[in-house]
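Please produce the structure of this protein holding S-adenosylmethionine.
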Amino acid sequence: MQIDVFTLFPEAFAWFERQRHVANALAAGSSLEYVNYRDHTPLTGGQVDDSPFGGGAGMVLRVDVVEAAMRARYGEDPVSLRDSRRVIALTPGGRVLDDRLVDELAAEPALTLLSGRYEGFDERVLQNFATDRISIGRYVLAGGELAAMVVCDAVFRKLPGALGDEESAVEESFSAALDGAPEYPHYTRPAEYRGWSVPEVLLSGHHARIREWRLEQSRARATEPLP
Ligand SMILES: C[S@@+](CC[C@H](N)C(=O)[O-])C[C@H]1O[C@@H](n2cnc3c(N)ncnc32)[C@H](O)[C@@H]1O
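Below is the modeled complex.
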């Protein structure tokens, strides 16, 4: 998986790259690279944004700046780049990221993530350069960097070898293995704590019953009201 993140703040990803599953994915041949819009702006003084036509608060990331950065990276018109590569604009109003979408993205050979800042992108970026618009939830962050990390985190942990042997992304909350339901509860030692005991079945050593109990719990969590 080759991921390019377009951002004004590539340094924000330093911590993220050190996370074990990300480092594992990178060591196994994936890549995570950054393009700073400001490094390629055709405007003077490193300008990347401008005030909105029609007035209003905030600044808008310019379409010519985004195009220049994409051309510098790919050597082609970003309009046609969409035929060969998934280009994702991170935006609060986009398709909300879920496990199905993560599976879809993890199956791609390469992704481009466009992070916005300020008031967001000039609409022509979304219309003409992006194949997808993805939101990590119905709230507004100050910038797309955290959203890009969320997408990369969820995608990388789906890749073979990213998780340690003791972990698996196959049977987790919302996975096909659990029919899209939340995962069942986990417990560890001590078996008894302040009168809170671990369900008997988990101590029984009876694998078929444990499996059945876990699936029941998972199904129940899909329908029960949240605390
Ligand atoms: C302050 S936000 C812009 C919000 C925009 N004015 C709006 O109301 O939809 C700046 C940038 O942060 C990113 N962003 C903020 N919230 C996000 C979310 N929930 N999902 C994905 N990206 C988000 C986007 O890249 C966006 O362009």
